[in-house]
Design brief:
alpha+beta
Length: 104
Amino acid sequence: MSPEYLCELADIADPEQLWRINPFDQQKLEPIERYRLDTGVALRRYAEIVRQLESLLGTGNSLVLTPLSRHGKAWMTIPAPDSHKRLLEARANRPAAAAEEGEV
């Protein structure tokens, strides 16, 4: 899924954009509103990760995510490990018919 599509899904899940509400007021939301808020936030966070990954396509780099807490993470770009480089090379060298069908 593209980052744009994930953001569209987030807008559908949270049409009122509850994520823009002051965090203190978010604590007063009804349970169903909280679910919509959390769903929208999770989809937007995932969209950002997908956006980062897409930006690395063809660069030979990898994205490393390090959990800092349940709600926090750090990320950085590093050169792809050799095992990942071999996967990239194998994918680049596969027959065109397999590439079109999405096979590895």
